[in-house]
């Protein structure tokens, strides 16, 4: 027995219906991307600020226990392992002052300078572009801001 025509027409989606669904999904994806991407950039800047605060605290603890700041040449590595030729190596904390040095959210090492340009010492990230200076997401983030 043949299938009546009215059942054949109602059996699937038309091209117009499929196109409408694709357009709606595209619009929703666009709205989500517009709202999520700025949040990710903000989250990366906040993570950098949190890391810098931890490193700043570790530098201060290093100073309190060894009676000096790490030099610019020793850098933040002095927080993980005792610098060579330390006058008071016995005062260096076993295990260091941080377990490992984090990288900034953009995959670059944090920078350190003593004496600092902005405070007694500077701990900073070059931001998203990895280059000194910049504005917006590319701005340097440091313990002075």
Protein architecture, described:
With 145 residues, the protein is mainly α. It is 39% helix and 6% strand. The chain contains two helices and three strands. Strands 1-2-3 form a three-stranded antiparallel β-sheet, with helices on one face. The protein is elongated. The model has no long low-confidence stretch (mean pLDDT 88).
Short description:
With 145 residues, the protein is mainly alpha-helical. Helices cover 39% and strands 6% of the residues.
Task: Give the secondary structure arrangement, pairings included.
Blueprint (H helix, E strand, L loop, with lengths): L4 H5 L5 H52 L44 E3 L8 E4 L15 E2 L3
Antiparallel strand pairs: 1-2, 2-3
User: What is the ordering of alpha helices and beta strands?
Assistant: HHEEE
Strand line-up in the sheet with most strands: 1-2-3
The biggest sheet, with number of strands, parallel, antiparallel or mixed sense and barrel status, is: 3 strands, antiparallel
Number of strands: 3
Q: What are the low-pLDDT stretches, counting only 5+ consecutive residues below 50?
A: none
Span of the ends, CA to CA: 81 Å
The overall average pLDDT, rounded, is: 88
Form type: elongated
**Number of helices, where a helix is a run of at least 4 consecutive DSSP H or I residues:** 2
Give the proportion of residues in helices.
Answer: 25-40%
Structural class call reads mainly alpha
Strand content: 5-15%
């Amino acid at each position: 027995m043949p299938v009546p025509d009215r059942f054949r027409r109602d059996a699937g989606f038309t091209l117009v219906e499929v196109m409408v669904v694709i357009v709606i999904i595209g619009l929703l994806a666009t709205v989500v991307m517009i709202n999520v991407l700025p949040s990710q950039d903000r989250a990366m800047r906040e993570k950098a600020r949190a890391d810098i605060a931890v490193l700043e605290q570790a530098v201060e603890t290093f100073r309190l226990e060894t009676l000096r700041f790490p030099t610019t040449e020793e850098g933040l590595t002095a927080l993980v392992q005792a610098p060579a030729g330390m006058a008071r190596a016995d005062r260096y904390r076993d295990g260091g002052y941080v377990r490992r040095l984090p990288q900034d959210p953009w995959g670059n090492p944090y920078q350190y300078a003593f004496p600092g340009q902005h405070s007694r010492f500077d701990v900073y990230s070059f931001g998203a572009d990895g280059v000194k200076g910049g504005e917006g997401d590319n701005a340097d983030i440091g313990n002075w801001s």
